Amino acid sequence: MANIETIHERIKQLVTTLAGGKNTVFAQKLGVSEANIRGYIKNVVPKADVLEKIVTSYEVNANWLLTGMGKIQKECRELTPTKDGTGIPLIPVEAMAGCFTGSQTVLLQECDRYVVPAFKNADFLIYVRGDSMQPRYYSGDMVACKMLSPTDLFFQWGKVYVLDTDQGALIKKVEQGTDDETITLVSENENYKPFQIPRRAVYHIAIVMGLIRTE
After folding, report:
1. How far apart are CA 116 and CA 44, in angstroms?
2. Which candidate, 59, 100, 8, 44, places its Cα nearest to that of 188?
3. How many CB atoms lie within 10 A of CB 197?
4. CATH of domain 7-67
5. pLDDT in tens, 29-88
6. Would you give the DSSP letter of residue 93?
7. Are 133 and 58 a contacting pair, CB within 8 Å?
8. What digits encode the pLDDT tens for the residues 106-145?
9. What are the helix (H) ranges across the chain?
10. Quick check: 183 and 173 in contact, CB under 8 A?
11. What count of other Cβ atoms lies within 10 Å of the Cβ of residue 20?
């Protein structure tokens, strides 16, 4: 990509590329006002904490953001499976329930495993499917997950979880429901409306620790 000369132009490019051209979506992700985003696009230089939020929230290449050089988003080296059985298992979505219950031990033994130092406490890796979590996660992205005990479970509202439900495996942001017996599952893609499910319909759950995006 050609070098975009000013940081204001680069932020405008990010809004277009990662937030569908909507200042409000970009602002909400960063926790700032829409007026702030308009200012950043026009003539205001973001403070260091805002720049950090842009880098971490959208996996933006900091060098590109500051200088215009390189690719917009962070590059990740192609992962190579380990040969000795160590590392974090990469499980297929349809096997997630078995991973939680331990009922598919043989299958887990056959899974590729990867050493990812940043997520050494993760229990498994899983691929994102579909576009419902764009622009946060794209289909083909890999997320590292930590299994949670169903007993004494409390949700961190606004965090992303992998849930084993009646509808299969879902990767969604979890918010409060209308009562204590329900939760609201929210997609990042505005084309997908939030929906509620009973807590009892969630059989197993893991919190998403982070993203691994390969080129």
Report:
1. 38
2. 59
3. 19
4. 1.10.260
5. 899 999 999 999 999 999 988 998 888 777 788 888 888 887 776 655 556 778 777 888
6. G
7. no
8. 356 678 888 887 787 898 999 888 889 988 888 888 899 9
9. 7-18, 23-30, 34-42, 48-57, 62-67, 96-101, 105-110
10. no
11. 14
C-beta separation of 128 from 142 below 8 A: yes
- CB-based contact 176:184 (threshold 8 Å): yes
pTM over 0.85: no
Do the Cβ atoms of 88 and 125 come closer than 8 Å?
yes
pLDDT (tens digit per residue) in 141-194: 889 999 887 677 788 999 999 998 888 889 999 999 999 999 999 998 989 999
Phi, psi of 112 (to 5 degrees): -65, 145
Q: How many CB atoms lie within 10 A of CB 32?
A: 17
Q: Which residues, listed in sequence order, are joined to residue 17 by a DSSP beta bridge?
A: none
What tokens appear for 136 in the block? Answer: 């946060």
Token duo for residue 214 = 């390969």
* Two structure tokens written together for 57: 């929230």
Interatomic CA distance for residues 107 and 103, integer angstroms: 9
Q: Which amino acid, 71?
A: K
Residue type, 130: G
The 8-class DSSP code of residue 213 comes to -
Rounded CA-CA distance 153/125 in Å is: 21
Pick the CATH number of 88-212 from 3.40.50.150, 1.20.140.10, 3.40.50.20, 2.10.109.10: 2.10.109.10
Cα distance from N-terminal residue to C-terminal residue, the chain: 15
Is there a contact between 67 and 7 (Cβ–Cβ < 8 Å)? no
